Amino acid sequence: MSAPVPSPGLAPADRAVATAVRSLDLALDLTLDDPPEDRDRLEGWRRLVRQRLADLRAALAAEAVPTEDAWLVARGGVLARERDALGRRTAALGSAVLDSPDTGAVRADLRRLLADVAHHVQRRHDLAYDAVELELGGED
After folding, report:
1. Which end of the chain is more exposed for a tag (fewer CB within 10 A), N or C?
2. pTM beyond 0.85
3. What's the number of domains the chain is made of?
């Protein structure tokens, strides 16, 4: 997956999410034998991925949904619920990373989570763009 690369022009919350996504993506790229031969290496990978998940969950929790205009409030509510659902999935996958014997399935679930976070971030940016467009007058 091509994770977003943190940019100096991003808001701090967006930069934190982008950094957490990139860190988790890099951790998932680490190769493991299938089945893992080295138990210590597997446990190290599990701890690393769990820490990256915790960072992602914290970054998502710190995100604020920009909704000042009445017509954007509903979309902001959808984004807030989506963010909360991503946080719950992150917590559940944190447990699966430590407990599941099938690292391939866990890795696939984590890749899906990263794709869903990327879509969430894009929807946040779309909402912010629409808010600015409304404020400035936009196209008629």
Report:
1. C
2. no
3. 1
